[in-house]
Write a structure and sequence with these properties.
This protein has helices spanning about 20-30, 35-55, 60-75, 80-100, 105-135, 150-160, 180-190, 200-205, 230-240, 275-280, 315-320; strands at about 140-145, 165-170, 190-195, 210-215, 215-220, 225, 245, 290-295, 300-305, 310. The chain has about 325 residues and is an alpha/beta fold. The protein has two domains: about 5-125, Four Helix Bundle (Hemerythrin (Met), subunit A), CATH 1.20.120.420; about 135-325, Rossmann fold (3-Layer(aba) Sandwich), CATH 3.40.50. The strands form two sheets. A seven-stranded mixed β-sheet has the order 3-2-1-4-7-9-10, sandwiched between helices. α5 crosses α6 (about 150-160). The longest helix has about 35 residues, at about 105-135. The structure holds 1,5-di-O-phosphono-alpha-D-ribofuranose. 1,5-di-O-phosphono-alpha-D-ribofuranose (RI2) binds next to α2, α6 and β6.
Length: about 325
């Protein structure tokens, strides 16, 4: 996605109800909207709608107000890099208008255009990933998936559309059981879908041809950050000699990892893993609820991106091409 493509006439389809920046922040934090791509699009939409109404006496205050709103949205969740990358893409549009001497109206319009451009490109990336990934699946393949990923589901849905007769096992994906959502969506689409508990993954791995999962962040060395449990699935796949594929838009590459910075792993409330009552009754029990983990590049066959198939070792060169909007 280049900023030179900002001359968008088209408004994207309204995916989320219109909400203020504060409401979008809370919606993201409470995971009422989840999924790395969707949270980025929700933040871009909230920033766009903020820019539509922002009142500022001069360009500097307009840019600062938009920047502040963007910073707030970026802080809603720490791990999925799609969120800061999506917001930064929009802010780059606003900043370019401000730094080139634009008026309040120019800055507002540039923000709206950049947000629409991001939303359209993000949605289209999911479609392209589906097309590219589905071609790699074979007729009758059995797939294991983890959590609830639009990009991974796009691959499976497209393969189904192509008449490949695939079968899918969905891990439940504790703590929030997002695999239930995946299973419901794939079954409703007509795919032969089975819901399994997370700890049955090894049992079913012997029946699988590949694992296809989504992605929250990719580090420069090709490591994957995704919903907790993904790394266990990858190790099991490796041991059973089953392919492990990751469906990921390129804006999930985390630029800061090139400087050796690590991806923050979000830790969420213990009530996601035990009831309040149980926690109160067992005061000596400690809790940890990290919701993402890291899969080493050696367990990943390739990333399916909107730009094509990329092996983990190829992530750095994709990152270099994307640097233009940082
Ligand atoms: P898409 C989700 O995170 C899951 O970890 C999923 O695999 C990933 O985002 C990518 O999802 P969360 O927001 O962008 O549910 O492919 O914590 O939809």
């Amino acid at each position: 996605m280049g900023v030179e493509t900002l001359k968008v006439a088209k408004e994207p389809k309204q995916e989320f109800t219109i909400m203020s920046v504060d409401d979008a922040f809370t919606t993201l934090q409470e995971m009422r909207v989840h999924g790395a791509g969707r949270i980025a699009r929700l933040a871009a939409q909230a920033l766009r709608d903020y820019a539509k109404d922002v009142k500022a006496p001069n360009p500097k205050e307009c840019w600062h107000a938009i920047l502040k709103a963007g910073e707030k949205l970026k802080s809603a969740r720490p791990t999925a890099v799609s969120l800061p990358n999506g917001v930064n893409y929009v802010l780059y549009g606003s900043r370019t208008a401000f730094e080139s001497g634009g008026s309040v109206e120019d800055i507002r319009q540039a923000t709206i255009n950049a947000a629409n451009d991001f939303i359209l490109s993000s949605t289209d990336a999911v479609r392209q990933i589906g097309e590219i990934g589905a071609k790699r699946l074979k007729n009758g393949d059995t797939i294991i998936t983890h959590c609830n990923s639009e990009a991974a589901m796009s691959v499976m849905k497209k393969a189904h559309d192509m008449g490949k007769g695939i079968k899918v096992y969905c891990d439940e994906t504790r703590p929030k059981f997002q695999g239930h959502k995946t299973a419901a969506a794939l079954a409703a689409y007509g795919i032969d879908t089975t819901l399994i508990i997370d700890s049955a993954c090894r049992f079913f791995m012997d029946k699988a041809d590949r694992v296809v999962v989504g992605c929250d962040a990719i580090s420069v060395n090709g490591a994957l950050v995704n919903k907790v449990g993904t790394s266990q699935v990858a190790v099991l796949a490796h041991e059973a000699r089953v392919n492990f594929w990751v469906a990921a838009e390129t804006y999930k590459i985390d630029f800061k990892t090139i400087m050796g910075e690590l991806v923050d792993i979000e830790e969420r409330d213990p009530t996601e893993i035990a009831s309040k009552e149980w926690i109160t009754k067992n005061p000596k029990v400690k809790f940890n609820n990290p919701v993402f983990d890291i899969t080493a590049p050696e367990y990943i066959d390739f990333y399916i991106t909107e730009k094509g198939i990329v092996p983990p070792a190829g992530i750095y060169s994709v990152m270099k091409d994307l640097y233009q909007y940082r």
